[in-house]
């Protein structure tokens, strides 16, 4: 199964970017993993929040194939412990051709993106910056890979 993470905008914090690159490389030892960055919209001052979500949503949907299993990282999504996420990921590996996770822009997702999504996951009840969510998510994806393989990275 191929796994993809779609992001709106570059990771601007160099420390987060270095951590994300490190985990991207580590995840690559377990599964094909790619990060796609959709450039931030230009001239957003003239757009409402809703218009920005719609435009970003159109760009996200262009990157998604009809057979993809799409999972939004969303504050209203399902929360899981790391071991539950690993079990969930292992089940997806058996059923999904390509698993696509999406981190939205600053205002979240458009209705069209919500309608296309198969599931929504939340990393926490707490709110994190969009930059930080990227690092936290790739760490959790790596952790899930090590749990599936029974490696000692994760401790109960």
Give the key terms.
alpha/beta; 5 helices; 5 strands; 43% helix
Overall pLDDT? 95
Q: Report the helical percentage.
A: 40-55%
The secondary-structure element order is EHEHEHEHEH
Shape: globular
How is the topology of this model organized?
Blueprint (H helix, E strand, L loop, with lengths): L1 E7 L5 H14 L5 E6 L10 H14 L6 E11 L2 H14 L2 E6 L7 H6 L2 E4 L7 H19 L8
Helix pairs in contact: 1-5, 3-5
What does this structure look like?
The protein is globular and about 50 Å long. A five-stranded parallel β-sheet has the order 2-1-4-3-5. It is α/β, with parallel strands linked by helices and about 160 residues long. The two termini are about 25 Å apart. About 25% of the residues are buried. The longest helix is centred in the C-terminal third of the chain and has 19 residues. It contains five helices and five strands, in the order βαβαβαβαβα.
Summarize the structure.
The protein has 156 residues and is α/β, with parallel strands linked by helices. It has helices at 14-27, 49-62, 82-95, 111-116, 130-148, and strands at residues 2-8, 33-38, 69-79, 98-103, 119-122.
């Amino acid at each position: 199964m191929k796994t993809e993470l779609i992001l709106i905008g570059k990771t601007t914090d160099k420390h987060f970017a270095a951590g994300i690159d490190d985990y991207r490389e580590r995840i690559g030892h377990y599964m094909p993993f790619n990060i796609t960055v959709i450039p931030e919209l230009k001239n957003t001052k003239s757009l409402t929040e809703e218009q920005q979500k719609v435009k970003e949503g159109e760009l996200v949907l262009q990157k998604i194939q009809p057979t993809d299993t799409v999972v939004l990282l969303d504050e209203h999504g399902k929360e899981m412990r790391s071991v539950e996420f690993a079990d969930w990921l292992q089940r997806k590996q058996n059923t999904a051709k390509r698993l696509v996770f999406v981190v939205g822009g600053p205002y979240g997702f458009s209705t069209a993106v919500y309608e296309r999504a198969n599931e929504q996951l939340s990393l926490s009840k707490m709110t994190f910056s969009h930059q930080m969510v990227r690092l936290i998510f790739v760490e959790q994806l790596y952790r899930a890979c090590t749990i599936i393989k029974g490696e000692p990275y994760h401790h109960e």
